[in-house]
Amino acid sequence: MTSLPKPLPAPDPATSEYWEGAKQGELRLPKCRDCGKFHFYPRTLCPHCGSVNLEWKNCSGRGVVYSYTVVHRAPSPAFEADVPYVVAVIALEEGPHLMSSIINVPADRVRVGENVRVTFRSAGSGDEMLPMFELG
Ligand SMILES: [Zn+2]
């Protein structure tokens, strides 16, 4: 049976800065120069005020677990070695919520409201890196 590989980042003009930051160990988010708010996912208009006057900023990489689930059944054979793993919504200090994984901790240790910090894990080939989170 052929096993599909894990999906890799697919940068496009709206997300390339995000993925380039990840390669350099930086969590970058778009910030509006007009209203001063961050947003995620990356897009061409500020979702808060509609401005196109956006810039990319490095973020603290800190936040709290807003919600999470523990995946026990791999969605494809490529993930079988990873189960159980935690998929979480992280509420970043800068405001946006970001879906990612919490790694380097047993799944039953994760709780809503726990502090987390970003870390980066290889996407499996090439130099692509994925932002993930650790407790602490
Ligand atoms: Zn704005």
Q: For the largest beta sheet, what order do the strands appear in spatially?
A: 5-4-3-6-7
What's the main sheet like?
A: 5 strands, antiparallel
- The N- to C-terminal Cα distance equals 40 Å
Residues in β-strands, percent: 35-45%
User: Globular, elongated, flat, extended or rod-shaped: what is the shape?
Assistant: globular
Q: Please mark out the parts with pLDDT under 50 across 5 or more consecutive residues, or reply none.
A: none
Radius of gyration: 16 Å
How many distinct beta strands? 7
Domain unit count: 1
Mean pLDDT: 94
How many H/I helices?
1
Distinct small-molecule ligands in the complex: zinc ion
Tags for this model:
single chain; 136 residues; five-stranded antiparallel sheet; 1 helix; 6% helix; 36% strand; globular; binds zinc ion
